[in-house]
Fold this sequence. Notes:
The chain is mostly beta strands.
Amino acid sequence: MPAERVIAEPLDAIPLEEVSGLTHAVSADGVVTIAAIGDRAARIAIARVRAGDHQPTWEVLDLTEAQGTAIPAKDPQLEALATDGAGGVLLVQEWPNRAEYIDGPSRGVVVGLTLEVPDVPGTQELRRSWDDAEGSHAEGAVLLRDGHLLVVKEKHPAALVEFGPPGDAPGGFGPERWHPYGERWARGTGEQVLVALAAWYPDDALAQACPDLSDADEAPDGRLVVLSDQGMALAVVGPQVPAEQPFAGTFGADAVWELHGISAKPEGVAVLPDGVVLVACDRRKAKRNLFVVRAVPWP
């Protein structure tokens, strides 16, 4: 599939060093927020945006002040986040394989989640990489219904992995599976375990265009937009159901967009309700690290 060229324009400076994740959510009353994290310090940047006016005003919060957090202040290894529009933020560490769901208003950890890949048929390569401290782990996250989570695994192998409570059946991802914005995502409290239930791997054509997977976000039409750092590209992915063998799924792209105007290291993506795409870059200094793609050629 030939890739289309899109232009990313500088938009703003997210006040974080080494931004590693970006996301968006819509509250029950329609307020759109974007949030970003970096892997250099345990801080989160949050801003509200309005349709037609994508210039954010940032508020930076110190995550170490969250009651009950186990995220270290320095080198927190935060690579992924997701928000539910109901005041909850899910923060995912690259290592250890762990996440925390924090309630924004109370600034407290509601649920701590250990993410495990079970020893079942089809998971050998995935589990080997997941359990290796030097291996590839979570780089992005999208909330699913029923307390499930779609994790973007970067490489070796690159994959989209559905996690859920032990014993649950996988449901796949797409318009019918995304968690409804404005509703609380977390189920229960305390420490819990989510296990991998299914995985999908890029097909040959997509793997050539997107050698790694760095982040993902839900698009307004219900498809998934996946970001590739090494490929300097975005891919639009349609709905997926679990394969007959749940850890042998593959996925292709409805479209691939080559990013131009960004020099290196795009590691976060957020797709706003009006279809505009924001891309955050991992830069040592908080300068020109947020870009906007306005003329998006949606297929």
